[in-house]
Design brief:
single chain; alpha/beta; 4-stranded antiparallel sheet; about 20% strand; binds flavin-adenine dinucleotide
Length: about 625
């Protein structure tokens, strides 16, 4: 096996991985980025709507308002100190991206342009504020290109199309990772003082998803298998507006520009569910509303979708009703300019022109709030007390800091990547200066090689494609937007059967080594099955509704018993694992505690967990 030696090994080349690589290299470390995709193909490149920062370029705004929205949006499961860092560092991070060359859209005064997004408010919920900084509807694409250029300039080493499949743990510390070079099928060891997971999410557990095919949660599954718990896995966000059946995302920016959701009766139904925020209520609320409209027989053609209408005549009619100024009114040209990619998707994939017709949309599995637990410097922690696993780091969607709590606010993921990617990169550079190399164990990589041989040589009757399809269907039906004890039990039972077939009865057609996508997809299915399982198992134990976790049998949020993070551990053999879930990791409520210490009367405390009122 070829062995590569670098101070910091970064797994993943999305926004989080590139930001971490940039800052680790600036800190003097020798950095290698190992990525299964060519870097600029990472999912960050599809982020459309924008990156949130309280620049206040168009409306009055402050980081403390952004912090408040993040905490409230996360249904109070957000760690408050982390949210404060996120909001404060966001401003600097966006300006830094601009200085690196990111071509943001501009206001008429040539400042960075900002648009409305769900849950972004001024003065602690008073009114919607324009906070999302954007480069048309291609913000993520621009971030990725900008950061990649900077990494090249900083001489970061890239190993493109190398897929990490295991982590090497020596005496409780991480000594590197094992990867497969996709072009040859050969195994390589990346020996590092620090290993940094930035490998993205796992929306592919569900059948309707906005996530790219590559989002199979490899990093989180690898960590889980090597003893790291995963945090808050029961919280997975469904974005309300995916293209019907395809799941492709229609950015919330469409509603930010004035688009509205309409049911089969021609009614703007969000006025009933969220009278003040309406179509820009938080994503969990809007997704549930679409399901409830469907159940009440008011979806379009009774097929489970509704219309998203951004036609100028519709938008301007509602703007007029709301008393908006004439200068805010839109026309076809405004939409073409601000949402070019969305128009392109709809025209290409649906044959629908959004300037002339409404778009058919349904909720789509979108974002993992949970993941590898970390502290605010992206160091991986392995228990409720915050014990750090030496040499292990994580940031981005695969990590759980937790700034998103039970439900992520739109545009906060891109902020999370750059803020915590940067903090983690700096911390890792500092760490590697002070530690010695851990020698590699003689058998590093042997176990995972054997597992790949098992998959390659399987002579059963179950094909990965079929198992994946069944997993996605049961996750959609039983571990989706609405959950009950009964659906979750069913989900767990189905997943156990699928796991049995995956380990005892697998068959893949391609036995070769070169670019064997059959083999890699089969291995990725194993990762998805593990993550689906821990999602269902924490979901069944959390007997309350909070944020994206909506239990029909426990409709209320229950702060007395459940205001805590979950940590789930996987033990035993992969083919028949045992799980251990704990709900004892405290939520950081430091901003509320400060208010209490300052003697702020209860009714004026902003950060006290309070019932959600829309
Ligand atoms: C369609 C869409 C639109 C979105 N729009 C917005 C938005 O407007 N604003 C916002 O804030 N958020 C948005 N999000 C969410 C946000 O884009 C993602 O959460 C974020 O980009 C994730 O970044 P990341 O760096 O963590 O991972 P990703 O960008 O997903 O990158 C993952 C990287 O890990 C690598 N990788 C994975 N597994 C392995 C492995 N086993 N070995 C080696 N490499 C591996 C991949 O090659 C890739 O480079 C959107 C998401 C989607 C899907």
């Amino acid at each position: 096996m070829q062995i590569h030696k670098h101070d910091v090994i970064i797994i993943g080349a999305g926004g989080a991985g590139l930001m971490a690589a940039l800052y680790a290299s600036k800190g003097g470390a020798d950095v290698a980025v190992v990525s299964k995709l060519y870097p600029t193909r990472s999912h960050t490149g599809t982020a459309q709507g924008g990156i949130g920062a309280a620049l206040g370029n168009l409306d009055e705004d402050k980081p403390i308002y952004h912090t408040y929205d993040t905490v409230k949006g996360g249904d109070y499961l957000t760690d408050q100190a982390a949210a404060k860092i996120l909001a404060e560092n966001a401003v600097e991070a966006v300006i830094e991206l601009e200085h690196m060359g990111l071509p943001f859209d501009r206001t008429s005064e040539k400042r960075i342009s900002q648009r409305r997004f769900g849950g972004h408010t001024r003065n602690f919920g008073e009114e919607l504020v324009r906070r999302a900084c954007h480069a048309a509807d291609r913000t993520g694409h621009m971030i990725l290109q900008t950061l990649y250029q900077q990494c090249i300039k900083n001489e970061v080493n890239f190993f493109d199309e190398f897929q990490v499949v295991d982590m090497i743990v020596v005496d409780g510390a991480v000594a590197g990772v094992v990867a497969i070079e996709l072009g040859t099928g050969e195994f390589h060891i990346f020996h590092g003082k620090a290993s940094f997971f930035a490998s993205g999410g796992w929306g592919r557990c569900w059948s309707v998803t906005s996530n790219a095919h590559s989002l199979t949660g490899d990093g989180a599954a690898i960590a889980l298998r090597r003893g790291v718990p995963l945090q808050d896995m029961e919280f997975f966000q469904f974005h309300p507006t995916g293209i019907y059946r395809m799941g492709i995302l229609i950015t919330e920016g469409v509603r930010g520009e004035g688009g509205v959701l309409i049911n089969s009766q021609g009614e703007r139904f969000m006025e009933r569910y969220a009278p003040s925020a309406k179509d820009l209520a938080s994503r969990d609320v809007v997704s549930r509303a679409i399901y409830l409209e469907t159940r009440a027989g008011r979806s379009i053609k009774n097929r489970g979708y509704v219309h998203l209408d951004v036609r100028p005549q519709t938008v301007n009619r509602y703007f007029a009703e709301e008393g908006r100024e004439r200068k805010d009114f839109i026309n076809g040209e405004t939409i073409e300019r601000k949402l070019p990619d969305i128009l392109d998707f709809c025209r290409t994939y649906l044959g629908v022109d959004p300037v002339l017709e409404p778009m058919p949309v349904q909720p789509t599995a979108h974002y993992a709030m949970g993941g590898i637990p970390t502290n605010m410097d992206a160091e991986v922690i392995i228990d409720a007390a915050g014990t750090v696993m030496p040499g292990a780091y994580a940031a981005g969607e695969t990590a759980c800091v937790s700034v998103h709590g039970a439900n992520r606010l739109g545009t906060n993921s891109l902020v999370d990547l750059v803020v915590f990617g940067r903090r983690g990169g700096m911390k890792a550079a500092e760490y590697v200066k002070g530690v010695d190399w851990k020698p590699l164990p003689a058998d590093a990589g042997a176990e995972i090689q054997a597992e790949f041989e098992r998959i390659r040589n399987g002579s059963g009757a179950s094909r990965p494609g079929e198992l994946r399809h069944l997993m996605q269907a049961t996750m959609m039906d039983n571990v989706g937007v609405f959950r009950t004890e009964e659906t979750l039990r069913q989900g767990i039972k189905d997943l156990a059967e699928l796991r049995e077939r995956f380990y005892k009865d697998l068959h893949i057609d391609d036995k070769s080594r070169v670019f064997n996508t059959d083999l890699m997809e089969a291995w990725e299915l194993g990762c998805l099955l593990d993550l689906a399982d821990v999602t269902a198992r924490t979901a069944i134990e959390r007997k309350e509704s909070r944020g994206a976790h909506s239990r029909e049998d426990f409709k209320k949020r229950d702060d007395e018993n459940w205001l805590a993070h979950s940590l789930i551990y996987q033990r035993g053999p992969l083919s028949a694992p045992e799980y251990e879930a704990h709900f004892d990791k405290q939520v950081d409520l430091s901003l509320w505690e400060e208010e209490v210490a300052q003697g702020v009367p209860e009714e004026q405390q902003k950060f006290r967990p309070k019932e959600r009122v829309y």
